[in-house]
Design a protein that fits this description.
Elements lengths: L4 E2 L3 H13 L4 H10 L6 H8 L5 E2 H11 L3 H5 L3
Amino acid sequence: MEEQKIKQDIFIGANIRRIRMGKKIKQVELVRLLQLEGMEMSRETLVKIERGKQHIRATQLRAIRDALGTTYDALLAET
């Protein structure tokens, strides 16, 4: 069964970027944290997600949530 993709809107990517920058975490650092947890993601993929150019998978969203120590509400909120 193929993993569900979450339709990307401007809020998810912008929220990831805002939260990441608020915690002073660089993109390469976040990618490294994700990879340490077993989530294979490149910096290029993260850039596309943050810019709303690529759909985010449910497992990616969960991993980003955990790595940033935030909530789904914060990631999905309209800003």
